[in-house]
Amino acid sequence: MKKLQYRFIPIIALALMVFNISFGQRPLPDELLNNTIEGQINYLEERTRIYENYRAIREDMFQKINSNVMDSLTAYKGEIVVLNATIRALNSTRDSLNETLEDTKSSLKEVTRTKNEISLFGWQLNKVVYNSVMWMIIAVLLFLLAFGFILFKKNRITTRKTREEIKNLREEFEEYHQSSRLAREKMTIDHFKEIQKLKEK
């Protein structure tokens, strides 16, 4: 009986080897080839058994999942490197844009200050003050112009009246001079006549 048991051992071993070879050469299921890592792990959880807190997984399936996980990690590491480079580039661009924004704000303040100020005789005046001063000067000049015009008009009227009075005085003087000359001549003639009368007597 023992000899019979020992006889079956090589047959059982041979059968197990053949079974392992045929089992190991089975193709991998599509779930491990075309699925996500999470889907592959879910597939293994559904298709494998647990024995004394250990999960029995075929070596080729384990190696395939391990390879897929490593490939995914490598791809994610590459994506992380690219994303970090993109973040650095974006941070650099943001810093550059912030500097440009600060320069633009500074330039805008300077332009606004320059726009709102006017240089007058070396003084920097606010436009409101400058406009107020200019309007006051214009108002004073207009007042002086109106005052000068009124004075000119008044002087012209006075000059015209004075000329008319002088003309009237000259005419009166001419009349007086003429009348006094005639009176003197008449008096001279009368005097001469009186003398002649006296001589004749």
SSE layout and pairing:
Blueprint: H1 2-24, H2 30-34, H3 37-47, E1 49-51, E2 54-56, H4 59-116, E3 117-120, E4 123-126, H5 127-200
Antiparallel strand pairs: 1-2, 3-4
What does this structure look like?
By secondary structure, the chain is mainly α. It has two domains: 23-108; 124-200. 85% of the residues lie in helices and 7% in strands. The protein is built from five helices and four strands. Strands 1-2 form a two-stranded antiparallel sheet. It has a two-stranded antiparallel ribbon with strand order 3-4. A hairpin with a 2-residue loop joins strand 1 and strand 2. The N and C termini lie far apart (230 Å). The mean pLDDT is 83.
**Between the first and last Cα atoms, what is the distance in angstroms?**
230 Å
Q: Could you give the order of strands across the largest sheet?
A: 1-2
The outline comes out as rod-shaped
- In DSSP terms (H or I, runs of 4 or more residues), the helix count works out at 5
- CA radius of gyration is 66 Å
Biggest beta sheet summary: 2 strands, antiparallel
The succession of helices and strands, N to C, reads HHHEEHEEH
SS content category: mainly alpha
Strand content: 5-15%
Tell me how many strands there are.
Answer: 4
- Mean pLDDT rating: 83
Number of domains: 2
**Considering DSSP H and I runs of 4 or more, what fraction of the residues is helical?**
over 70%
Spans where pLDDT lies below 50 across 5 or more residues:
none
